[in-house]
Amino acid sequence: MTSIINIIDNILRSSLAGAWYLMVYYGLNPKMSYDIIISGRYVEFLSSIYNIYYDLFSISIIISSIIYLFYYSLGISKKVTGQVMRYIISVILIISSYMIFHYILIISKYIFMYLWNGTDWYSIFNASKISGYSGLTLLFLNGSYFTGIVILAFSLVVRQAILIIMAFIMPVSPIFILFPGAEKYFTRIIKIVTELSLMPVLTILSLYLMRFFPGDLPLQIGFIYASFILPGLLFRTISGFLRQASLFGMDASIMDYNYYSLIDYIEDRIPVDLNNVSGDEPFNDYMAGR
């Protein structure tokens, strides 16, 4: 039995370094975590579509603005002016949505590179440094370590795939603004993009602490699992405290913070209520949500 445990443990130990390398190269490496999304081949396809429809959208905004001012000045139809305003906002966001997506990633990458540079992330983990545990205990620890690395690598790769899909979804998502009550789906897409963009920043922050504990296997395992738990936990915890400390009278219990994210908080602070658009109110009152 002991020999079997030792064989399995040796296999796991020899696999750890390889799993770590693959996780860093395909998941954490800025070329894969950001550059492939910011400047991948699909970007040329999206740019060509934007070039085709940009002038058309611009003309439609001008025409819609004229229609809005005409109906608004005459006070003919509240329903028409409200829907035209929705259309104008939707088209403006369609034109600028990919730029928003692009700059969210660039800002996140800038923060990420500050932590990435100056550290050899491929050599932070060294299986040869781990010793001093009994056979069964070491088997359990190495198995937990290997599982954590695989889960982290899988999470980072799936993140890349989701963001590339979002690059195609985001330009058409402002269409939701045309329908009363559906604006929340657009803001949820913005939320997903922002949180996924910042995910590697929080992940690398947790992994950075591993370099200070090269021989402490249990603590390294803790940092590995924290690296993919921390992003979601941090977004929700910060959001919970912000909601509790809000000066806007938002009624939210600290026990409910798990159901919110930081972007939800920002969304609730946006002073625009498209459900209350009407033609007999000044434009500034409309933008203030009054």
Topology of this structure?
Blueprint: H1 2-28, H2 30-38, H3 42-74, H4 78-116, H5 135-169, H6 183-208, H7 217-244, H8 262-269, H9 283-287
Helix pairs in contact: 1-2, 1-5, 2-4, 2-5, 3-4, 4-6, 5-6, 5-7, 6-7, 6-8, 7-8
Describe the structure.
This protein is mainly α. It has one domain (2-287). The chain contains 9 helices and no strands. The protein has helices spanning 2-28, 30-38, 42-74, 78-116, 135-169, 183-208, 217-244, 262-269, 283-287. The longest helix has 39 residues, at 78-116. It is elongated. The chain crosses the membrane at residues 12-28, 48-72, 84-112, 132-154, 161-179, 185-210, 222-242. Keywords: Membrane, Transmembrane, Transmembrane helix.
Q: What would the average pLDDT be, to the nearest integer? A: 74
| SSE series | HHHHHHHHH
Can you summarize the main beta sheet?
A: none
- Number of E-state strands: 0
- Helix/strand/pairing category: mainly alpha
The gross shape turns out to be: elongated
Question: How many domains, as an integer?
Answer: 1
Assembly context of the chains: single chain
Task: Please work out how many helical segments DSSP would assign.
Answer: 9
Helix content: over 70%
Radius of gyration computed on alpha carbons: 25 Å
Relative strand content? under 5%
Separation, N- and C-terminal Cα atoms: 74 Å
pLDDT < 50 stretches? 245-267, 269-290
